[in-house]
Amino acid sequence: MNLFSYIKSEQAVFMKRGVKMKIMLDAGHGYSTKGKRSPDGLREYEFNRSVANYARDLLQEYENVTVYFAHSDLKDVPLQERTDKANRLKVDCYVAIHANAYGNTWNDAGGIETYVHTSKPLEAAKLAEKIQRNLVISTGLKDRGVKTADFHVLRETNMTAVLVECGFMTNRQEAKLLRSDVYRKTCAEAIVKGIADHYNLKKKPIQPPPAAKGFYKVQAGAFKEKKHAEELAEQLRKDGYNPLVYFEK
User: Fold this and answer.
1) Number of independent structural domains in the chain
2) What SMART domains is this protein classified in (predicted)?
3) Model pTM score
């Protein structure tokens, strides 16, 4: 194992001990990125940012987790700026979210794939496998496996980094899914489950609702005939209770 892989491995073990964790989500590309859209006009960034938003909300349900975005809705953030931000903030995990494409016309290429750097960092590979498995199970799409690539966001980050491809914009059926809010939530849930399982994240305890102002009342019965009310009251007295019979119009 090289030094880079060792650092990432030790980092993951450290995080599993319950220390505060910083996660960066990267919705790939931007509104104005040329060519990153389906043949019928779906912009990849629309899908990517939606999944990132859902994933952020889900991750915030876990203890000791802070989520950052590498992207922006205001501009197309350059790749160097994204990785510089991640390194400056010293985040522990970097997840780039994308939708795939094969050419620029409709075709049959389809499925889910997840990438790690060509150096095959151990912890990144383990995280990628968990995310890939959850995405395939949740979406039901073809399993294209965990792959390696020399993508900038995988090469220039100093932390565990993976890139997920959640379906093909050039596949008619999958493009329909990519437009679906349900599918976007499904992808976010699968990605977060993979992260949570890998880092052993714990959900925040559910807080009880605030106490209601006023009084709580218990009514044992309501009758049109007074004698029936008195019969129930007598039975309750025998059982050790102190009932009150009153008439209400």
Assistant:
1) 1
2) Ami_3
3) 0.79
